[in-house]
Amino acid sequence: MALALRAGFVYFTLVFSAAFIFGALRILVILPRLAPSLAVLIELPVILAICWFAAKWTVRKFAVPAAVADRLVMGFSAFAFLIIAESVLAIAGFGQTLAGYLASFATPQGAIGLAGQMCFALFPYLLYRRNAVDD
Hints:
The chain has helices spanning 2-30, 36-62, 68-93, 98-103, 108-130. The chain is an all-alpha fold and 135 residues long.
């Protein structure tokens, strides 16, 4: 399980870094021109593709066992790291409260983002189910 946790942290780091850059682009370039939910819908497929390839790379790099428990630990630990990092960034970086951050998931764009984050959490497991790591 320690290996899966380390892989989860690396997976989180790769995706969080990319999503931070794309999120900034979404806010600065797309959001001024479109509705917030549409801006997120435009960004989401790109982020999900990054998540898929990051999950494949991380599983290979760390040789995460093809066991359901290991893949779920990898994905859900990455999800936990992501939620913690986002909440810290929202509070410390953007002056939101924790309640405000959590309430943001009730907006259409927040719900879309949360659905994408759930996919992110499940990708290591889906790679196992699909046997797609070697593809």
